[in-house]
Amino acid sequence: MDAATILATLVSGSVIGLILGLVGGGGSILAVPLLIYVVGVGSPHAAIGTAAVAVTVNALASLIGHARAGRVKWRCAGVFAVSGMVGAALGAELGKAFDGKRLLALFGALMIGVGLSMLRKRGKAEVPNVRLTRDSAATLLPRLIPIGLGVGMAAGFFGIGGGFLIVPGLTLATAMPLPFAIGTSLVVVSALGLTTATSYAASGLVDWGMTALLVTGGIGGTITGIKLGKVVGSRKGVLEKGFAAVVIAVGGYVTATSI
Q1: Is pLDDT larger for residue 215 or for residue 237?
Q2: How far apart are alpha carbons 69 and 197 in whole angstroms?
Q3: Mean pLDDT of all residues belonging to the chain
Q4: Where is the secretion signal located (predicted)?
Q5: Given this model, what pLDDT does residue 152 score?
Q6: Which alpha helices (DSSP H) does the chain contain, by range?
């Protein structure tokens, strides 16, 4: 790996971390395009596998802070994660079987859809104290399991953390408040990322040196993003819309160049 590639990988990791720290999610969806178009990874499958490992490590690191703050609904996370891991394993196998260019085109379309969904206003949570118990299981499990399975398949197929899908999925299934959905989603992101990463690593589609550089850059970017987020906290909505516009633009580029 030459100096230019090392620098590009560190910068890419920093960008991903910066976005995660600044707007609270979504950075992982840029990981694959950054690896392909900035770092120069030739294989879409290798980019997906490498991104999956980096996303998993970053999610685990972020989870620690949310868990300490008590913003994780562990039982809901466990059910969602287990069903999601089944979906991720299936999705990863399907993704590896797909032609690289077609996979990128679909990924670009997903980015456009995600960007558009980010522009929509989030609904307010209705059940702040939601818990998965024997009494609530009959209501929550039929929602958590199928939604988790579907989200997991998408995450595994595209090699993404899926936080932007998991958070609305959790709020849809349980009506938990957004801060809890974000914290809880990190458990699921870690589980799905690990499943996807394991599948791709077993096929030799992970560049471990590049992964280490992505994570290293991501740590610095996340710290910077969190600090900037505190400074511009009142304009976070504007930042999220700006990021959504970037995701849509990058998605359009990825789709156009892959057709």
Answers
A1: 215
A2: 28
A3: 82
A4: none
A5: 85
A6: 3-23, 31-33, 44-68, 74-97, 100-118, 134-158, 163-174, 178-202, 208-231, 236-258
